[in-house]
Design a protein that fits this description.
The structure holds two protein chains of two kinds.
Chain A (H helix, E strand, L loop, with lengths): L1 H4 L3 H16 L3 H26 L7 H17 L5 H24 L3 H21 L1 H4 L5 E2 L12 H24 L2 H11 L1 H6 L4 H27 L1 E2 L6 H14 L4 H18 L6 H15 L4 H14 L1
Helix pairs in contact in A: 2-8, 3-8, 3-11, 3-12, 3-13, 4-5, 4-6, 4-11, 5-11, 9-11, 12-13
Chain B lengths: L1 H18 L6 E7 L6 H20 L8 E7 L4 H13 L5 E4 L3 H14 L3 E3 L14 E3 L4 H14 L4 E7 L2 H13 L6 E8 L7 H8 L5 E5 L4 H11 L6 E3 L6 H7 L7 E5 L14 H15 L5 H20 L4 H9 L4 E2 L4 E2 L14 E7 L2 E4 L2
Parallel strand pairs in B: 1-2, 1-3, 3-4, 4-5, 6-7, 6-8, 8-9
Antiparallel strand pairs in B: 10-13, 11-12, 13-14
Helix pairs in contact in B: 2-11, 3-4, 5-6, 8-9, 11-12
Classes of the chains: A mainly alpha, B alpha/beta.
Keywords (chain A): Cell membrane, Membrane, Transmembrane, Transmembrane helix
InterPro entries (chain A): ABC_transp_permease, LivM-like
Membrane topology (chain A): Multi-pass membrane protein
Chain lengths: ~325, ~375
Amino acid sequence: MKLLDSRYGGLLLLAAGLLLLPWLAGNAYLLDVANRIAINAIIAVGLNLLIGYAGQISLGHAGFLGLGAYASAILCGSYDWPAWLALLSAAAGVALLAFLVARPILRLKGHYLAMATLGLGMIVSLVLSNESALTGGPDGMAVPGLVLFGWEPQGERAWYWIFATLLLLAIWLAQNLIDSPLGRALRAVHGSEVAARVAGVDTTACKVQVFVISAVFAAIAGSLSAHYTGFVTPGQASFLHSVELVTMVVIGGMASTYGAVLGAALMTLLPQLLSGLEDYEMLVFGLILMVSMIVLPQGLLPGLRGWLQTRRAA
Amino acid sequence: MKRISLTLSVLLGLGLTAATQAAEPIRIGSVLSVSGPAAFLGDPELKTLQLYVERLNAAGGLLGRPLELVHYDDAGEAAKANTFVKRLIASDKVDVILGGTTTGATMAAVPLVEKAQLPFISFAGAVVIVDPVKPWVFKTPHTDRMACEKVFADMHKRGLLRVALLSETSGFGKSGHDQCVDVAPAQGVSIVVDETYGAKDTDMSAQLTKVRGSDAQAVLVFGLGQSPAIVTKNYRQLGIELPLYQSHGVASKEFLALAGAAAEGVRLPSPALLVADKLADSDPQKAVVTGYTAAYTQKFGGEVSTFGGYAYDGLMLWADAVKRAGSVEADKVRAALEATRGYVGASGVVNMSPSDHMGLDASAFRMLEVRDGGWTLVD
């Protein structure tokens, strides 16, 4: 467990696990589930910076994801842009949008902030369903495969290496950020914004930076997942999806990067494992989430770690 | 972390082994939107599949083998449908995939079934699913385009050649509008007024006043839910005498209840399923639609919907193809499906061909007129 506390120990462990996984998960479906977990984990790691460390809430992150996905779909599909350029443009465009809206939005606190981000997500979702000439409307649109300089990932295994590498990269970035002056400033903001400002932290700039970073994480994951699935629908940007992303962070454990990964894994795996229950699926799913929040209110990973430590001490 | 990743891989492994079973039954895979925003479509579809798989099994299954339905709920999300289709192909090793309630879910599945070379029958509406034709992809519902053709053909027959089109700005209305504008010239009618209204508008008098001031001879409204009923009421309040047509989107009892007396004389295209009891005994679809209605309402109560009819056709078209192919081998079933001729289903008479993987024509729609608060078949 000490490994997890150092900056790179956990990363090495996870890398080893990710390397071994393709040999354990033999068929395309299991690799697909692993890929979906990685996509969600990348977004959750980014969102965790905002929610867990900066203490700000966003109920509109699926909007950024949707923008990334549709940027790739439209630029590559309708305008024949190369995939890497579409991806970078999506990331840059979302960064700019996030930056522009962050200043006014992040002045708000608590419920008002939640409401403003929710509105942002809703607007994106509405535009995507209504601009049917561009986006294909509620039916969605097809996305061409990801071609990177003549190479195209074929099959789940090739995609797995892309997503696994990106996940490790995302975690590495997040861990470094947390240990940087910005990360410390963010935690100060989380603790008390007034105190942080008194101590000379430019709280607004901090919050804006982390909001932009987490939006870019979502946009890149959205863009790649659009290529991976081969089809996008406005459902990707829906409010419910935003809530799902926040749930991943909260259930895994706020202010814990690996907690966010665990939360993403759980939220992606559970529907697959419970699908045999048919009508009771949602009931059991909800029950598991409720019980885990009641028993481990600080989230799965911090909760489990605390439990292990007390047991070892006893 | 080690412990966690171990638990994770065990969990993943469990999911895998639980799903693998002996190859004895024929396995039908389905991915439908039973929850989420499209649940009103997916729910009757799943019920129909369960009901008829049960009935086929009671009658001895297919080729002497029992049927087994493997079902997943995509909650209306294309990405989830994509994962579940992979699961059906790679883990459950199904012999056919039915479903895709929405166009998005269907299109997310298309590349996968094409690659796996597995027969796939969708219950979603859009033309893109079968146009261009994809070798392994079929669909059962009729399209908006056919509704437009049906309405325009009826107008043409009555000598109504100048049409006012009033469409809703929803997905359904938008798609219907585009298709109607596209097919009008071929049907010999011209659209002289083209107006839209919002799905939540409470008064459409302004648009109708424009219609009244034009030289249109008939009016077609393309919308869903309450608003077409409001249009109908406004229409009577303004005293417009022109014949009024609605789309198949209002082919339900709610429309009659909402529009009341104003609905008298309104014409609309509808699948035969909704007027099962009104069909002539000589009608080829009579036996199928009354049989389906009786079986469904007896088991689940309530009203039948056209969406359940799509699922019925999907399952029965496949069962028919399996019987003719004498096998569940994918390429034989695919060839048999494509060779389907004269299959009588809930949505119409299906004639597939290598260039047509839906196989319905405008005769799948019946023209109804509202008389004395009920539906009357006019052709």
